[in-house]
Specification:
CATH superfamily: Aldolase class I
Helix content: 40-55%
Order of helices and strands: HEHHEHHEEEHEHEHEHEHEHH
Largest sheet: 8 strands, parallel, barrel
Number of domains: 1
CATH class: Alpha Beta
Number of helices: 12
Distance between the termini: 45 Å
Shape: globular
Length: 340
Amino acid sequence: MTKGDLAQTALDLVPPGKGILAADESLGTIQKRFDRINVQSTEEARRSYREMLFTTPNLEKHISGVILFDETIRHATTEGTPFTKVLSQRGILPGIKVDKGAKALAGFPGEKITEGLDGLRERLTEYRELGARFAKWRAVITIGEGIPTGTCIAANAYALAQYAALCQEVGLVPIVEPEVLLNGDHDISRCAEVSERTWSSLFTALHRHQVMLEGLLLKTNMVLPGKDYPTQASVEEIAEVTVSSLRNTVPPSMPGVVFLSGGMSYLEATERLNAMNVMGDHPWQLSFSYGRALQETALDAWQGDSANVPSGQAALYHRAKCNGAARDGRYTKEMEAEAA
């Protein structure tokens, strides 16, 4: 894949009215999701659930790409069609999560480093052959007393940059995901300060690794007060502070920011994204890469019962449609009534 192809694929992931469905839950995370609806997390249950999501009628109208897990990229529909082909035939780009999870950073209590660089070049090549067009790597940054340290931020930025360079080498668009966690009692200005430090360090590392920014996307947190902070910010303040922090640190040559929904309700994720896009044009596309905020209502409707597949698909389509509108600043609360 040429540099032009990488740049076009990145743009194809953030077109008007569309965003990314994150369906890359690890085995532990999907277990927690299934536990909530009292469904045993067997491989067949996971395959059936993902088949319901990926075969949702008209999903391609509002979803540009889907991030898969290692198990899922190897799965197929009941009829035997690989999931990557099901998605590609509908114009939805298949992607893949490639990191091995965040582990304790030695010598730095309370902080983590994401692992998975060993053997990554070979794994990326295999995923490309399986049909992936883009990849994702997540790093986590925790706010607390005396943290994050510069060492933690720099170490994760370096790993993200190495991963991104390897992705582009084999023809995959890298999504770099530094997530400043919502845990804590800090205010929104503290989150803004840490987010800006994190993003600045990341783009410095990407430059040093000669990563082409036009062929890359940033997946990250919105700037929010900690979940234990006594006064939560308004939708408008979150939008303004998030956009301001991004403008301070993220180069305009990078085509798109796709926000994660961790810690937010599905309505909050939609309303806050919409508020940012209502503000007007930005140097980059502001879209979404939501997991729970897209899937939660679909999972509740499905309940592990094949008879509920149409209801689960209707719920997913509705949330995708609402977020597709928010991605363009066209979302209204009246849209929620359509699901009733």
